[in-house]
Amino acid sequence: MIPSTGTPASAMPACAVSTTGGQALGARATLAAGDLTRGAGGGDGPGRFWCEWAWVDGGVRPGVLVEAADGLIVDVSTVDGAPAGAARLNGLVLPGMANAHSHAFHRALRGRTHDGGGTFWTWREAMYGLAERLTPEGYHRLARAVYAEMVLAGWTCVGEFHYLHHGRNGAPYDDPNAMADALREAAADAGIRLTLLDACYLAGGIDRPVEGVQRRFSDGSAAGWARRVSRLRDGPGFLAGAAIHSVRAVPRGELPAVVEAAAGRPLHVHLSEQPAENEACVAAYGVTPTRLLHDAGALGRQTTAVHATHLTSEDLDLLGGAGVTACPCPTTEADLADGIGPMRALADAGCGVALGSDQHAMIDPFAEVRGLEAGERLTSLRRGRFGPAELVAALTTGGNTALGWSGAGRIAAGAPCELVAVRLDSPRTAGCDPAQAVLAASAADVHTVIVAGRPVVTDGAHRTVDVGAELAAAIREVWAS
Ligand SMILES: [Zn+2]
Question: In whole angstroms, what is the distance from residue 148 CA to residue 196 CA?
Fold first, then answer.
């Protein structure tokens, strides 16, 4: 196996990911999800944080002391008042939240696609126009700012569903993982854990070759894709995972090779986001996308079905029976007029639930949980379809598990020390029951974020990235190119 060239250690910040070690995709890795040394991320020395309120064991407790060492929580106790030497975190402290579905470059489309109406498919043309412009250097600058925006909002882990692999004419870069490395460095810069879900993308539609910018996405075959991603290496704060872009983009005959190469790793797939995808799949193969993936062996506990919007009752049974995680992206699905998926039914059938911000029409974990519950209320005419504890679980343990970090997303001994402190005295949250504040708060209420035992956000500002300015500069640059 050939190690990733990555970036010289001397050019990396203290919390940077390693470019050595780990196991490769395609090597039938038996990587244990939840190897928490991966979550240490370079934290050093002991730390003590006293939380006014903290989310522990599925509920809220007052006066919680969290003690950490080497980036991990070593003890959690209840203490009446902040002890001397402990950092005080006012408000509600949540475990680190995991954004299970991101395409970082889509952030450059925010606030630019609302004129002229259209559909998901016309939005996709705008996205392709953006994808044509990106270079590894420009993508690093953009993703660094986007990931910093995520940390500012309380996401401490991101699953980057990555398909922009190659150069503008479709030819591989000298380092065929140059784009992946750009994302990896961007995450390290921003102080967020990253699971890189490297996507296999081979076709422009069922029985259609890639064309135009889609050539940047394709490795030609699943075997070619597997060879490239076998060069990715895990490291602290970084995990390599896999993705099937969709049943539109990976022909049926290529699916088993992707599944085999992804064994033991997170495997994500866009599933039934649009009715047209279902219709094309049934027309070509005589089965739904879910059934097609099931028959190819792609559904299991490592699998995450992103969107899962337009499903049959058999699809629900197959996904639940396999223990797949469902990952709705409510703000994106609303923005793109996708529809509302049957999330309560999927959870009841046996699916885990995670959440993602996908195309980043907004980056706000609280908006995603409210969107999940609002969709259920609007379609069922019932309230409380997902209770506050289930919503927090989707943001924390659900997302982390979907991204291969099954021990993370908890305030408990042994978990990565990731703490997200949310104001309870803002105009939005004042007067809330802390146990229900996730249904009232916004990203703007996050005042402190601790990652690997270190503060990354304090007083509502990222400590190393000027997020608004860097976003503006990176987005201006990509559209000018
Ligand atoms: Zn997506």
Answer: 16
pTM of this prediction? 0.91
Taking residue 320's Cβ as centre, other Cβ atoms within 10 Å add up to 18
Q: Tell me the two tokens of residue 57.
A: 């064991």
Judged on CB neighbours under 10 Å (0-12, 13-18, 19+), 77 is exposed
Confidence of residue 421 (pLDDT cuts 50, 70, 90): very high
Active-site residue, selected from the candidate residues 358, 360, 445, 447 = 358
CATH architecture of 38-95+412-462: Roll (2.30)
Report the pLDDT value the prediction gives residue 44, as an integer from 0 to 100.
Answer: 52
Query: Please, which residues have CB within 8 angstroms of residue 420's CB and are 6 or more apart in sequence?
Result: 93, 94, 95, 96, 97, 154, 156, 446, 448, 449, 450
CA of residue 78 to ligand 1 center, whole Å:
41
Q: Superfamily assignment of 99-402 in CATH?
A: Metal-dependent hydrolases (3.20.20.140)
Q: What is the mean pLDDT of residues 213-222?
A: 98
Contacts of 41 (CB under 8 A, 6+ apart): 15, 17, 71, 191, 193, 236, 237, 416, 451, 452
Q: How far is the CA of 144 from the centre of ligand 1 (A)?
A: 19
pLDDT on residue 339: 95
Are the folds of 38-95+412-462 and 99-402 the same? no
Where do the domains of the chain lie? Answer: 38-95+412-462, 99-402
pLDDT over 80 at 191, yes or no: yes
Measure the CA–CA gap between 57 and 54, rounded to whole angstroms: 10
What distance in angstroms lies between residue 331's CA and the mean position of ligand 1's atoms?
Answer: 12
